[in-house]
Design goal:
The complex is a heterotrimer of chains A (257), B (272) and C (259). Chain A has 257 residues and is mainly alpha-helical. Chain A has 10 helices and no strands. Chain A has helices at residues 2-25, 37-48, 51-84, 88-99, 108-115, 119-143, 147-155, 160-198, 203-212, 216-256. Chain B has a 10-stranded mixed β-sheet, with helices on both faces. Chain B has helices at residues 46-53, 85-88, 95-105, 110-123, 139-152, 169-186, 197-203, 231-234, 238-256; strands at 4-15, 18-30, 35-39, 61-66, 69-70, 78-81, 157-161, 189-194, 206-210, 215-222. Chain B has one domain (8-219, 246-262): P-loop containing nucleotide triphosphate hydrolases (Rossmann fold), CATH 3.40.50. Chain B has 9 helices and 10 strands. The relative contact order of chain B is 0.17. Chain B is globular and about 55 Å long. Classes of the chains: A mainly alpha (257), B alpha/beta (272), C mainly alpha (259).
Amino acid sequence: MRGLNTALGAAGLAAFLALGEAVPRLGLVKEAYFPPTSRIASALWDELTDGAFWSALGDTLTGWAIGLAIAAGAGVVVGVLVSIVPYLREATASTIEFLRPIPSVALIPLAVLLYGTQLKSVLLLVVYASFWQVLIQTLYGVQDVDPVAEETARSYGLGTWARVRHVLWPTALPYVMTGVRLAAAVALILAITAELVIGAPGLGQRIAIAQTSQAVPDLYALIVVAGLLGLIVNVGARTVERRALAWHQSVRGEVAV
Amino acid sequence: MHALDVSGLQKVYEGSGRRVEAVRDLTFTVETGELVCLVGPSGCGKTTLLKCVGGLLAPSAGRVMLSGKPVSGPPPGMAFVFQEYGRSLFPWMRVGENVELPLKQKGLSKARRRELVADALESVGLSDAAGAYPWQLSGGMQQRVAIARALAYEPQVLLMDEPFAAVDAQTRADLEDLVRRLWRERGMTILFVTHDIDEAVYLGERVVVLSASPTVVQEQLKVDLPAERDQLHTRVDPRFAELRTHVYQQIQAAKRGVPQDEVTKSNTPPPH
Amino acid sequence: MRRLLLRLFFVVALPLVLVAVWWAASDGSTNPFWPPLRTILKTFPDVWTGDRLRTDVLPSIWRLAAGYALATVVGIALGTVIGSYRRVRAVCEPVLEFLRAVPPPVLVPVIMLFAGIGDTMKIVVIASGCVWPVLLNTVEGVRAVDSVMLETARSYGITGVARLRNLVLRSASPQIFAGLRQALSIGIILMVISEMFAASDGIGFTIVQFQRSFAIPDMWTGILVLGLLGFLLSVLFQLVERRVLAWYHGLRASTRRSP
């Protein structure tokens, strides 16, 4: 069954690529707007052999990684703090609900003014958007803590820090992993977007350049790269999540006995 | 003409290199207005059989006739009551809407639909619950709603697949009485599948005992208890005990795998 | 009564404190990037007059609504088809996984090739980003319809459009709404970006204009407006969701009470 599904999927992909080749060549779409797959593939090859491309990719990944790390760290710390300090949760609920839907792109003009086209512009946007993903998921996770387990720990005289380590953290961990996974995807999108709109160095800026110089096949090739990058991040994050949880489950299993 | 005529029913499952014969050869009939119970050891394909009869599964061989017409898909003359009421009623519709939905499919007028729904809900004692959501009701009440839905559909044959297996014993007793009452009041034809031997004997006019998988008809019993039955008296009736013991022994034999030639293939139930 | 007051206190306490801190910290600020909150609030009504609401805010909201609606219709329609047939899903899956991984803003240059720089471009950009969460969540929701419910529908002869309307889409609606929620956030982002890229009006365009002409307090009012818009749309969404999915919330509450 799985073999058949993989085969079907591969067939679908092949059909998609074939369509991409046929449609512009048949004149259904203007070739200037939509180059055939083969032209895009060759532009992609040109990119891959261009040193500037790799340095741009590196810039994007740097912004993504640093932003994600900061956001994840901050999100977890704030999430845990809000949960263990009494009443802080209720007090912050309305603020979080208000700040959360604010689109990160609203900060673009501010970022431009403050940091111009430096990495910090990108980081401002990435951290702001990704932080919420991690925070919200951490809060869900903390909410899921079994009150009986918490009571038991308290009755055994475990201090706050010990309770966080042995009760709160193991329960919240799966949620935190989900939050990091979601944040990873968002961080990539924001990083590339920031580069695209602001002009900070990276893939996004390269795309903007391709657009202004009317290099249409290059444009498409870079979009394909962005998509593949996004795919790798999505799949990678899902795998990491599964691995971390597998370990988590088995450890919990042992301790429970 | 029989209400239901099942002959030579066979169902074979093929998949991942294995071939499982769930049902080998089932032959029996149900007369109009009869209440027949099917009992058998666990895993003997009771649900498979009922789904084939109801047109939800296509049999590998044999045929099912509803009032002389072959069944090749769920016919409008049959209504099915599932065991998992919680997963059979639609939670986004209120009770009244749930009961009404199949009637819309039949193309009945609004007035007629309302009439049938009100009548069905009254028969199961849930007239007041029409505006509630199924998940607001207890398990027993939800199953009543499912029964009401089947009643309102005005089927020729009612198929019930272990409908009371998932409710507690007291509720089950009430629901069993409900089924018997509805059967007597409306003169419906009911095919009732259960694993509970007591329930089969208490409810049925005739009990069909199934063998273990691959399933055939092990034996058919006529339940000669009085038509008026109640939980208190009927269950302590000595005849009840005899019948249930007999069925129990048959099922034990079925589990052990009674040889083929000792199995009754005859359709007429033996006189007792 | 006391509980209500307590809840109200918690809702406004921190925001008030934060606003007060912002006011105090920025008061008398000479940093051009961080004007005093007082100045920002004073500039607000001057900038966002009734006229500007009509010429900038309304077009933005209209584009967002049109793109969002388009994405909803396409996403649910395609999602239902793909989710209903296992084979179709298997064929489409790799392509969909790739397409949804492309960061939506990146498509703006491409879409500009086809659609120019007018309203159509922006609507297409918004729709192209919003469609993915709707589509994928619809596929999941349609796939996960309970098998017993499907059999029940089949046994009562409920097929075709009736089955779709009464069973499949209703059953999938909680999942679809989750997708619609995500799509809303993406839509707002794309609305702003498409306007920052190439526009002659709109909220995003206005904010960029202010930034370029160094009208900093005005720029900040624009950021506030965006924040307000995001918040209001989120509240509106929750109101709609709570009504449409009232049955779902009730169901979950009842299963939580009695496992």
